[in-house]
Amino acid sequence: MLEEVSYLGDLEGGRLASLLDSWREDSAERGVLAMVAEASLPMVASLQEACRSRGLALLGGVFPALIEGNRMVSKGAWLYRLPEAAMPALVSGKGEGSLVARGIAQAIRPASDSAPPVLLLLLFDALLPNIASILDALYLEMADSVSYLGACAGSETFQPLAAVFDRERRLDQGIAALLLPAATPQAMAHGYAVPEDSLCATATAGNRIVSIGWKPAFEVYRAEVKSHFGVDLDRENFYQWAVHFPFGVYMASGRALVRIPVALDEDGAILCVGEVPENSILSMLEAPKVDSKETVESLVGMLGKGSADLLAFYCAGRRLHLGEAAERELADLAVLGGARVSGALSLGEIGSFEPGGYPFFHNASIVTVGWSGT
Prior knowledge:
Number of helices: 9
Number of domains: 2
Strand content: 25-35%
Low-confidence stretches: none
């Protein structure tokens, strides 16, 4: 029986050639999904050449680290064998959100809108400034004909990387998209509690919070962190601490989208991973406790059991907050889910609060996909 998921620590020993040859011999119609660690970036060119020479489709992303054996590892690549109807596509994310969304929909639209919703897996370059707007426009294009799930690729330094690729190109601010079967198990959760007190983002621009309650954003945020958690924030320690104190953006449903602050600009505006609409109601979220299994139990409850492999995207900000407990969380996911966990450390996650629902851009989340490759 062919292995459908394989980890390559390096390209020595001819294992890549042997694996791809066996996949092609079985079916040349089934392509390859690749997750490559940033430190192993040269592997992308080798994967592209290997797939080109065999006529195999390739789609993938470059991530800060990979999940292997319930650990975070800094090198190598995961290869996943795609189903025949995956329709892998790589599109530019530059430009107006509605045009980008139309390009995605035209590239991968399911053959029949009357069929059960298939899973649309999306990999965004994390440096795209309008991911949430693209998702809004994509829902207008495709509505509930697909379920939406995915993650953001790139460097944890947030420097340009051209983080998504196919067998011909690596794209700067690009989007990789593919379809998975309708019955694919899927789940997303973050486990952050929403407190009762709130703030108002009175001026924003994309992912920049300029003012909160008509006062400079950093001034208010620093005071809130000091009041709630006793930590003195400044420019030098901002990223070290801010990952522990994310914003929640309230939604009409009573749920919250997590937005992790990652930097300050020269004017004191707070830069987040993901857009924050103007006049959003914000709160300081209560992060999951280090010893809590609630998030993993929620994921397993949604996924059920039965998948031998789980493809997982684990937020880099969540790992910074939990530290060593992040790997314990992955180990719990493997044990409770009864599956091998593989995947990547992500810089933002895409998912819905219910299957087939509206897609949102999240931070601090875990996204999981049961992988069969069929």
